[in-house]
Design brief:
With 423 residues, this protein is α/β, with parallel strands linked by helices. It has helices at residues 12-15, 23-34, 48-60, 80-88, 96-113, 119-129, 166-178, 180-185, 204-217, 246-260, 272-279, 295-302, 319-326, 330-336, 341-354, 403-422, and strands at residues 4-10, 37-44, 65-69, 92-94, 131-133, 137-139, 147-150, 158-162, 192-200, 225-231, 234-242, 264-266, 285-289, 310-315, 359-365, 380-387, 393-398. The chain folds into three domains: 4-185, MoaB/Mog-like domain (Molybdenum Cofactor Biosythetic Enzyme, Chain A), CATH 3.40.980; 193-270, Alpha-Beta Plaits; 273-422, CinA-like (Maf protein, Alpha-Beta Complex), CATH 3.90.950.20. The strands form four sheets. It has a six-stranded mixed sheet, sandwiched between helices. Helix 9 (204-217) packs across helix 10. It starts with a strand and ends with a helix.
């Protein structure tokens, strides 16, 4: 039987959308890595009744562990520890050593910042943060907010209480897992693996049909938990499975490759950025962009260390910039239009020579709501891939959506074209 967990993210600022939750996904990913199934992630405001309702719901779902994040500060609205203690039927007591530790951290902060606070109010806040449910184990704080680990009971799961600031939560996570209360709760977990396959140009309907076929072809298919996600024109196929079901996963990979080998570009989790970086090793790269507005260059330099092979780029919206900086003939633009494969070719070759590189890409298209025509509607983008010693490759594609969508999809498309030409 698998170990199941639920996550409760607290904070009215998260619930209202003023702050984007980073803790829920991070904790879920860490639990999945441990072989713990995450049943639910919920968000509630800083209200005891709402937090109690979430705790009750997850208990009814028979999870083995609840992880809460947030609500551990010294102010009146930080009520997570008191609410969880009440839910668990445990009294709160001040842990003297913890109180002294928090007070020392506060004094240290005051000394470094030069900020002095009212000593009475500060002492009250420190004392509040040092309250720990009887029988629970405190977890030393990184900031001033300690965590708390509470053992499971026959009618209630174990509960791990962690602070809201992501840096504090992540630093305290190992100590929380190491407490006997939490280690016992997840001790029955099995060994699981998670693998990712990435594809480009694969329609979800086609993938769905292949997965239906795989269900009848792969022994142990039911042991595979498969999720698919369409993102930026790429499809991620993430499969989680018990270690003993590895042969079933291998069978799934064979079925997918048989059906979609041309679209699948990664079977080991490597991203497009990883593969581009490897393919560009030893090369000098340049970009010439119009409709993508520098997004291609940004994607190429996002990966740590990859900027070494990107020599530079030109964002050329205006025709005179294309002519003046990229040597695109004005008569070519007049004859074929700025959005054309002829101009895309000239832009890529211009970047190749002007920036003294051996590899260059270009994008020119109609991304905005205006400027389209019957033969070149909004979403039409022309690409050029210039590699020294080869004929320049040009491609025209059409993308759906608004300006942001067209730019994003076009950026992904030209990088896949580049990868194809380099490999």
């Amino acid at each position: 039987m698998s170990v199941r967990a639920g996550i409760v993210v607290t904070g009215t600022e998260v619930l209202s959308g003023r702050v984007t939750d980073r803790n829920g996904p991070w904790v879920a990913a860490r639990l999945l890595e441990l072989g713990v199934d995450v049943a639910h992630i919920t968000i509630c405001g800083d209200r005891p009744a709402d937090l109690t309702a979430q705790l009750a719901f997850l208990t009814e779902q028979r999870v083995d562990l609840i992880v809460t994040t947030g609500g551990l500060g010294p102010t009146a609205d930080d009520l997570t520890v008191a609410t969880v203690a009440s839910f668990a039927g445990l009294e709160l007591r001040v842990e003297a050593d913890l109180e002294a530790h928090i007070a020392e951290r506060v004094r240290d902060w005051q000394s470094r910042s030069g900020v002095q606070t009212d000593p009475v109010a500060t002492a009250a806040g420190v004392r509040k943060q040092a309250l720990v449910p009887v029988g629970a184990q405190s977890i030393a704080p990184v900031g001033t907010a300690p965590g708390v680990a509470i053992s499971a009971q026959p009618a209630r799961p174990a509960i791990l209480i962690l602070p809201g600031p992501p840096a504090e939560l992540q630093a305290m996570w190992p100590a929380g897992l190491a407490t006997p209360q939490i280690a016992d709760a997840i001790a029955r977990r099995g060994e699981h693996r998670q693998e990712t396959i990435r594809a480009y140009g694969l329609r979800e309907a086609e993938l769905a049909a292949t997965l239906r076929n795989a269900e009848g072809q792969v022994d142990g298919f039911d042991d595979l938990e498969i999720t698919t996600c369409l993102r930026g024109g790429e499809v991620e196929i993430v499969t989680r499975f018990p270690a003993e079901a590895a042969s079933s996963y291998d069978g799934l990979v064979r079925v997918l490759l048989d059906a979609h080998e041309r679209q699948i570009f990664s079977t080991d989790g490597a991203t497009l950025a990883d593969l581009i970086a490897a393919a560009l090793t030893g090369r000098r790269m340049a970009t010439a962009e119009s409709c993508t507005g520098g997004l291609v260059a940004a994607r190429l330099t996002d990966r740590a260390g990859s900027s070494a092979y990107v020599m530079g780029g030109v964002v050329s919206y205006a025709n005179d910039v294309k002519t003046g900086l990229l040597d695109v003939p004005a008569e070519m633009i007049a004859e074929f239009g700025a959005v054309s494969e002829q101009v895309a070719r000239a832009m890529a070759e211009g970047a190749l020579h002007r920036l003294d590189t051996d590899t260059a890409v270009s994008t020119t298209g109609v991304a905005g709501p205006d400027g389209g025509s019957p033969d070149k509607p909004v979403g039409t983008v022309c690409f050029g891939i210039a590699i020294a010693g080869r004929d320049t490759v040009t491609v025209t594609r059409r993308f759906p959506g608004n300006r942001a969508s067209v730019r994003s999809l076009a950026t992904t498309a030209v990088l896949h074209l580049l990868l194809r030409e380099l490999t």
